[in-house]
Amino acid sequence: MATRSRIKDFFWRHSAGIAFLVMLGFVGFLAFVGYTYVIITKKFESSRRWDLPSRIYSDATPLVPGMTIPRALLEPKLNHVGYHEVAARVTNPGEYRYAGSTLEIYLQNFEYPDIEFRALPVAIDMDGGTVRGIKRLDDGVALRGIRIEPELITSIYNNEMEDRLPVSLDAVPKVVSEAIISTEDKNFYHHEGISIRGSLGALVTDIRNRNITHGGSTLTQQLIKNFFLNPERRWGRKIHEMLMAVLLEARYSKQQILEAYLNEIYLGQNGAVQIAGVEQASQVYFGKHVTYLTLPEAATHAGIIRSPNVLPPLSPSQLAKGLRHTAVPPL
């Protein structure tokens, strides 16, 4: 009783000071939350969200009647700039096919210094390697010529040696985004940035192991860690990460967060260069835009995320082929 009385007496005599300290701590917390919110929105809304390498391109390739260009030269050129061959009639930008002596190409959008070229399906009448005529595929109107977009010659990187081709969420097939969500964060559309159950489970495991090894991270937290913070494992940084994830979800839509994640995610190495984002990974591993990935390729993408450095550069190995069958739940 005497001890309890002394404690009560202490709090009574120092109640004003204690209240002031509590209020000061609360104000400091609000200030920290406000500062964190400003940092998040400033970087997330920046027009230069990512530092992209400087790229050097060749000139555009003209195709005009009378020009000679063998298939052995033309087809690799098309593949290098993102076109892929299809069996049926071309219906989407980036597709081409040979139908007898006619080459059908659905040209892609690209900007040139003096003009912007719009996506357009064309039919090129070939005689061996010689262009005999070019016409629009939809209405048969003859064209004087077309241009194939420039090829990338080289890139100049910063110290991080990171290569990325930003892509909008609309250009990413649902099979890709859904495969990634199903492996990384099944409840992505149902939480507010953090998973209490996942975090508590990770905490229990870490306490047992006496080491911070399990994140229990949501997709939003992974984006925060990669985009705003660093990969160090400390509980202070983990708490900061959770706060930032909640603020990010409060400010931006799930679609905006998912788009940023798909462009930020690390997906392996191309030699000494880091492959960042699904578009860059798609072109490195599969030689085509992410828009045209098939379901098995989308599943491979999702399977790579957890062990990106296990795969050899420039090759979706047998491990990746196995991942698309075992690591991804049915879509």
Notes on the protein architecture:
This protein is 43% helix and 19% strand. It is α+β, with helices and mostly antiparallel strands. It folds into 2 domains: 54-154, Penicillin-binding protein 1b fold; 157-326, Biosynthetic peptidoglycan transglycosylase-like (Penicillin binding protein transpeptidase fold, Orthogonal Bundle), CATH 1.10.3810. The strands form 5 sheets. Strands 3-4-5-8-9-10 form a 6-stranded mixed beta sheet, with no helix packed on it. Strands 13-15-14 form a 3-stranded mixed beta sheet, with helices on one face. β4 (95-99) and β5 (102-107) form a beta hairpin. α2 (15-44) crosses α7, α4 (174-184) packs parallel to α10 (295-304) and α6 (219-227) crosses α8. The N and C termini lie far apart (64 Å).
Terminal Cα separation, in Å? Answer: 64 Å
Rg over CA atoms, rounded to whole Å, is 27 Å
Largest sheet: 6 strands, mixed
Number of strands: 15
Per CATH, which architecture of the largest domain?
Orthogonal Bundle
Mean pLDDT: 79
CATH topology call of the largest domain = Penicillin binding protein transpeptidase fold
Number of helices: 11
Q: Find the structural class using helix and strand composition.
A: alpha+beta
Structural topology:
Elements: H1 2-13, H2 15-44, E1 54-57, E2 61-63, H3 71-80, E3 84-85, E4 95-99, E5 102-107, E6 110-112, E7 115-117, E8 120-127, E9 130-136, E10 142-143, E11 146-148, E12 152-156, E13 162-164, H4 174-184, H5 196-209, H6 219-227, H7 235-251, H8 254-264, E14 266-270, E15 273-276, H9 278-286, H10 295-304, H11 318-326
Parallel strand pairs: 3-4, 13-15
Antiparallel strand pairs: 1-12, 2-11, 4-5, 5-8, 6-7, 8-9, 9-10, 14-15
Helix pairs in contact: 2-7, 4-10, 6-7, 6-8, 10-11
